[in-house]
Amino acid sequence: MNVMWLFIILCTIAIAAVWFGVVPPPHASTLVRVRAGSVRVTRGKIRPEAKGQVAEILADAGIANGFIAVTPGERVAFSWNIPGTVHQRLRNVLLNQWT
User: Fold this and answer.
1) How many other C-beta atoms lie within 10 A of the C-beta of residue 94?
2) Is residue 36 within 8 Å of 55, Cβ to Cβ?
3) Alpha-carbon dihedral angle through residues 25, 27, 29, 30, given to the nearest 10 degrees
4) Which of 30, 46, 49, 74 has the highest local Cβ count within 10 Å?
5) Which of 83, 94, 88, 78 is nearest to 24 (CA)?
6) How many angstroms separate the CA atoms of 31 and 44, rounded?
7) Helix 87-95 vs helix 48-60: crossing angle, to nearest 10
8) Which residues have CB under 8 Å from 76's CB, separation 6+?
9) CB-based contacts of 9: which residues, under 8 Å, 6+ apart?
10) In the predicted structure, residue 1 carries a pLDDT above the cut 80
């Protein structure tokens, strides 16, 4: 197999993994991970009040694992297991925490 085709296939898989929320975007400026119900900021920083609100929203929705990523263009990406019903609430908390 040609190396170029292998590269194209791997890039397509990586893009699909980000698109479908399997892995967070590599260029995220802020990354919040949820493991066993515990919320942890692994990249960037958010205010403690915002972190508490995020944890509360996720706990109320019954979400124990996943990620939330904020990219430099203030786009928010969610892992596949965070339901769309809480996306806007989480966006509001994360994007409005500094205003």
Assistant:
1) 22
2) no
3) 20
4) 46
5) 78
6) 7
7) 180
8) 68, 69, 70, 87, 90, 91, 94, 95
9) none
10) no
Q: 10 Å Cβ neighbour count for 72?
A: 10
Terminus-to-terminus CA distance in the chain, angstroms?
53
Contact 66, 23 (CB under 8 A): no
**Is the CB of residue 94 less than 8 Å from the CB of residue 54?**
yes
Residue 98 is classified by DSSP as T
Q: Which amino acid is at 61?
A: A
Q: Which residues pair with 76 in a beta bridge?
A: 70
Residue 10 has pLDDT above 90, yes or no: no
Name which of 66, 59, 71, 62 is nearest 26 in CA terms.
71
What band does 18 get if pLDDT is binned at 50, 70 and 90? confident
